[in-house]
Write a structure and sequence with these properties.
mainly alpha
């Protein structure tokens, strides 16, 4: 057992070594990762815009916290709307718009998940 005033360098634990290795040896995303990220972004924005277009309930929860609230000139521009919101409300609203269809457009039990989840499966089949 080392003494309190022992200045010998102790070995780093495995988690710290893994983090340092990842940070210093990371080479960036692969082309496949960029393709999948782009498809996921397009799908998410498509779900958000569809929610705005087809759902009065979804449209009613987005926007300023109260009617007539000042806009945040340097805030978050909510895609598909005229709203410029503070970052917290903007993140909530965009997340609500994207996820709204998850709970409203899939028939319970007929699919194993959100219909847009099949996008990745179809890309994998094309790659084969």
């Amino acid at each position: 057992m080392p003494l309190a005033d022992d200045n010998a360098i102790q070995a780093y634990d495995a988690v710290l070594v893994a983090i340092v290795t990842y940070v210093f040896e990371y080479e960036g995303p692969t082309p496949t990762a960029w393709t999948n990220a782009k498809a996921a972004l397009i799908d998410a924005l498509g779900c958000a815009f569809e929610s705005l277009e087809t759902s009065e309930e979804c449209s009613s929860i987005i926007g300023p916290i109260w009617a007539g609230a000042p806009t945040a000139p340097t805030g978050f521009k909510l895609p598909g709307t005229r709203f410029q919101l503070d970052p917290v409300k903007g993140a909530f609203d965009l997340g609500s718009m994207i996820r709204y269809l998850d709970h409203n457009d899939a028939f319970p039990g007929a699919e194993w998940g959100h219909p847009s989840g099949t996008l990745l499966l179809s890309q994998r089949k094309k790659a084969r």
